[in-house]
C-alpha cells in the first residue's frame, strides 16, 4: 500500500517491477526465482538514482540482499524495514540510505526524492561514502563479521 501512496505523489517518476504495485511492464524481467533474475534485476537497478528496498519482514536485524544490491548498482536505497538497520550499516554507509521511517508520510518522502532528483549536490551527499570510504565501522554489528 505504501508504494501505491508514493506513486500518487510522483506518478511519472516511480517505476515498480515487482508483483505488488507494478507500474511498469518489462519483457526482460523474469520470474523472481527464474534463471537470470538477479542479473536482470541488477541491470535494471543500475538505471535508477533510487531503489526502493522494502523488506518482506520487519524483524529486528533482518535485512536481505536487496540493500547491498542497491548499493552495488550505484543507487541510493530507500529502505523500509527494521528500525535497527543502522546497527547493520558500517560507518559512512549509514548516510547513504534514505530511511522511510524518517518521513511522516509517503507525500513527504516523495517530496524529498523529487528534491534530490533535481538537486545534484544534495543527491551526491548520499554517495559521499563511495569516495571517502566506509570509515569507522567499529560500532556496527558488521564489525563482528569483518573483524572477527
From TrEMBL:
Its EC number is 2.4.1.-. One of its GO terms (cellular component) is Golgi cisterna membrane. GO terms for molecular function: alpha-(1->3)-fucosyltransferase activity. Its main location: Golgi. It is an enzyme of class 2 (transferase). It is a single-pass type II membrane protein. The keyword Glycosyltransferase applies. Residues 2-131 form the Fucosyltransferase C-terminal domain. Pfam families: Glyco_transf_10. Keywords: Glycosyltransferase, Golgi apparatus, Membrane, Transferase, Transmembrane. The keyword Ribonucleoprotein does not apply. It is found in: Golgi apparatus, Golgi stack membrane. Transmembrane segments: none annotated. Pathway: Protein modification; protein glycosylation. Belongs to the glycosyltransferase 10 family. This is Fucosyltransferase. It comes from Eutreptiella gymnastica. The lineage of its organism: Eukaryota, Discoba, Euglenozoa, Euglenida, Spirocuta.
Amino acid at each position: 500500500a505504501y508504494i501505491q501512496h508514493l506513486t500518487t505523489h510522483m506518478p511519472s517518476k516511480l517505476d515498480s517491477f515487482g508483483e505488488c504495485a507494478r507500474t511498469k511492464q518489462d519483457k526482460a524481467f523474469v520470474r523472481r526465482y527464474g534463471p537470470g533474475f538477479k542479473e536482470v534485476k541488477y541491470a535494471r537497478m543500475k538505471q535508477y538514482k533510487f531503489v526502493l528496498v522494502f523488506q518482506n519482514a520487519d524483524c529486528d536485524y533482518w535485512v536481505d540482499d536487496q540493500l547491498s544490491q542497491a548499493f552495488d548498482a550505484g543507487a541510493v536505497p530507500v529502505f523500509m524495514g527494521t528500525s535497527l538497520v543502522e546497527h547493520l550499516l558500517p560507518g559512512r554507509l549509514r548516510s547513504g540510505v534514505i530511511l522511510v521511517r524518517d518521513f511522516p508520510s509517503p507525500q513527504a518522502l516523495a517530496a524529498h526524492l523529487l528534491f534530490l532528483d533535481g538537486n545534484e549536490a544534495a543527491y551526491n551527499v548520499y554517495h559521499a561514502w563511495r569516495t571517502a570510504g566506509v570509515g569507522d565501522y567499529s560500532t556496527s554489528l558488521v564489525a563482528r563479521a569483518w573483524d572477527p
